[in-house]
Amino acid sequence: MIEGTVNDILEPVVTLVVSGVAERTSRVDALIDTGYGGDLMLPTDVVRDLGLVRVGATRLVLANGMEESFHTYMATVDWSGNKRGVAVHATSAAALIGMRLLEGHNLQIDVRQGGRVLIETLTA
C-alpha cells in the first residue's frame, strides 16, 4: 500500500524513493496523472542526480494534443515495499506517476485539500 495526500491545488501526490546507478537514491514527490500512459516522469535534474543512463527516446502526446519526444531511462522504484524497474521519461516539469505504474492497483483519492491518496494492489 502506498499513501499520499491531495495538495492545496487538488493534485494527488505520493512520495516515491527512486534508485539509479551506484545505489544513488532520491525521494520524489510525484503527481498522479491518469492521462499519462507511461510509468514515471522525472525532472531532468533528478535524472542527472541519480546517474540514470539513457536507453532511448519516446514520442508522447501531451494533454494539449501536441506530440513531443522525451529521453527514456531505466530506474528502480520502491513500490509498496518491493523494488520495481520502471521506464523514466525526463521532463522539465513536475514528476508524474502514469497509468503503466498504476496498472494492477486500486487508486482512491479523497478530493479535498489534505485528502488521502491510497494505492493498493488489486487481488485476484
What does this 3D model show about the protein?
This protein has a 6-stranded mixed β-barrel with strand order 2-3-8-4-7-6. The chain has 124 residues and is mostly beta strands. The mean pLDDT is 93. It is globular. The protein has 2 helices and 10 strands, in the order E-E-E-E-H-E-E-E-E-H-E-E.
What is this structure, in a nutshell?
The protein is mainly beta and about 120 residues long. Helices cover about 10% and strands about 55% of the residues. The two termini are about 15 Å apart.
Summing up helix and strand content along with how strands pair, one would put the structural category as mainly beta
What series of H and E elements makes up the topology?
A: EEEEHEEEEHEE
Give the radius of gyration.
14 Å
| Mean of residue pLDDT values | 93
Helix segment count?
2
Going across the major beta sheet, what is the strand order?
Answer: 2-3-8-4-7-6
Q: Which regions are unreliable across 5 or more consecutive residues at pLDDT < 50? A: none
**Strand percentage, roughly?**
over 45%
Biggest beta sheet summary: 6 strands, mixed, barrel
Which range best describes the helical content: under 10%, 10-25%, 25-40%, 40-55%, 55-70% or over 70%? Answer: under 10%
Distance between the termini: 16 Å
The outline comes out as globular
Number of strands: 10
Q: Give the oligomer, counting copies of the same chain as homo and different chains as hetero.
A: single chain
Core attributes:
mainly beta; 124 residues; 10 strands
What's the layout of helices and strands?
Elements: E1 2-6, E2 12-19, E3 25-32, E4 40-43, H1 44-50, E5 54-61, E6 67-79, E7 82-91, E8 96-97, H2 99-102, E9 105-109, E10 116-121
